[in-house]
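A student in our group prepared the protein record below, which I am reviewing. Thanks in advance; the entry in question is below.
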Amino acid sequence: MMMLLENLARFLRDEEDGAVTVDWVVLTAAVAGLGIAVLDVVRAGTGTLALKVSSYLANTTLVTGF
């Protein structure tokens, strides 16, 4: 039984075939998280700008004659 566990531990320690997949999963998760964070910041900024433009246009009078 002990030999089986030692062989399993050696296999898991020495095997690197799945390491690239794990790296890609972590990298993809980081890029997705960064994208979500950027979208949240941009959304907040565009909302503020839209309110300022709306307020400016609401207080502007239009000249209808030439």
User: Anything to note?
Assistant: Residues 20 and 42 are 33 Å apart (CA to CA).
